[in-house]
Amino acid sequence: MNLFVVMKRTFDTEEKIVIDDGRVAEESAEFIINPYDEYAVEEAVQLKEQHGGEVTVVTIGDEEAEKELRTALAMGADKAVLINTEEDLEDGDAYTTAKALAEFFKDKEADLILAGNVAIDEGSGQVGPRLAEFLDIPAITTITNLEVDGSQVLIERDVEGDIEKIEATLPLLVTAQQGLNEPRYPSLPGIMKAKKKPLEELELDDLDLDGEEIEAKTKTVEVFLPPEKEAGRVLEGEIGAQVQELVSLLQKEAKVI
Amino acid sequence: MTVAVTDELQAMKTMVKNFVENEVEPYAQRIEDEDAIPQHLVDQAKELGLFGMSIPEEYGGIGLNAVGKAVVLEQLGRTHNGFVSLISAHTGIGSTGLVKLASEPLKQKYLPDMAAGKKIAAFALSEPGAGSDATNLSTQAEKKGDQWVLNGTKHFITNAPVADVFTVFALTDKEKGAKGGITAFLIEKDFPGLIVGKKDKKMGLRGSYTAQVIFDNCIVPEENVIGEVGMGYMNALRILGEGRIGLAARAVGSCDKLIELSASYAKERVQFGKPIADNQAIQWMLADMATETEAARTLTMMAAEKVDDGKKVIKEASMAKLFASEVFNKVADKAVQIHGGIGYIGEYPVERFYRDARITKIYEGTNEIQRLIIARRILDEN
Questions:
Q1: CB–CB of A187 and B52 under 8 A?
Q2: N vs C: which end of chain B shows fewer Cβ within 10 Å?
Q3: Which CATH superfamily is domain B121-231 in?
């Protein structure tokens, strides 16, 4: 099977987010493979182990993202591609990423593209489905189980706590939900081998794209942290009056109804 | 001084840290209570290649250099020290003799299985009458035809109850003694005449077993001599020398963990209406713990870097082992003090670290012997 994983370098889930000058400060932060993308990498490696073939991991970002690509190679991927946009792009969004990836995939014969269901930083959950749309292949999101038999694919997906079973055919794009698998740790020999595996670096030019063509369709207006959680309030008095007070607070103060 | 850590090494550090935090730590209390390491953790460590870290790539390991080993062992030191002992006795003193000194056929026969963790290794030098005075061996090997016959008793042998292969030191020429009369042998547990005694009841390092190993007319084929006949004592010193850097690295990792535990406990524990971390008495303890730990780390990494530069490190390795083990004991003591009564209770990790710290001043050369080695070098050099 010709397997591809699209992945993103994100903040470590343990990091404290600090906003500095209207941006999330990245200087001293630790980075990881987006955890949902890690499920996608693991699934691709398992599929390769079962059915043979090759796993290529692809990311868009700057040189720093090489580390996360090497981690994926250490987990068992065979090849890595970094689409380096450092020089050509200020800010991108889900459209930017999907469009650049679509160009990359134009001449690839991918049987299966795996992505994370969502990235834990910006959380749009759009790159996977948008990419499938550009490539004109079906997309199935939030999958929790995947079985391949020839070109037939049996999938279970998480639908708000229920399971939906779907039959599909390759080529296909899927996005991984928690529960799909338990990602392996890259082993010491895996890490050593990873440095010898091919890592190709492309620029937008190589994809016949320029910054303008894939300019973000959205604009970030403001970046702020959620308000600090305040202590709760306990209502007192007669039940009826409490209910009335609660409803009025929800309407006027919390503005949720 | 900071040692430049390559991207691969950084990846290894992250992997080992995640592995011990997510997989081993949840079982630390169970290891302590049952004096046994769950098999699945040992299997996982094997799959991750930890048992082959010091064995060269051509024999199935990854042949980490000294800095690499120190980085990995430092992270392992963050978790249950008994678990780490099993691995590091195997990859350290258990494997080094074969890797550095053995003949090619011997290496090919044993190293691949050792790298995969299919064969667990132990190192048998100490005897009831030969501890710090390691040359005073009474275990003897006699050549009979193309075999050696060993008789004697070793004790406090880490991994003995689980080991498949032992690096054993015996007298081959009583007259010459340490000067050309001690030889190292690679002995399989199934060689006739090797008996493993019952395991010792220790103060700490639970889950890691030590025991006596008795040789009763134990027959060893000639080709299982490690290095040259008669050169065993020099070889033992060489094996122990580099191993000391690994011990120091483990101690540093344990200190890191103790500092983290102590700082977060001090912020949570409220007395007299405020967290105890607000008290200068606590802050000073934390400051000393962290400062001494960094000094130990730097000394350890300096020694490791010197090994990789091909320099002699007998003095530096002893310094790292001496200093890091003493810092570990001081840090563990302060960690218990910060935790107060809870630090004395067996359900908290600091109590375990406190007991586990104690052996580090004794094993693989007592700290008195380390001082002796350091002093001799200084006197020789000046």
A1: no
A2: C
A3: Butyryl-CoA Dehydrogenase, subunit A, domain 2 (2.40.110.10)
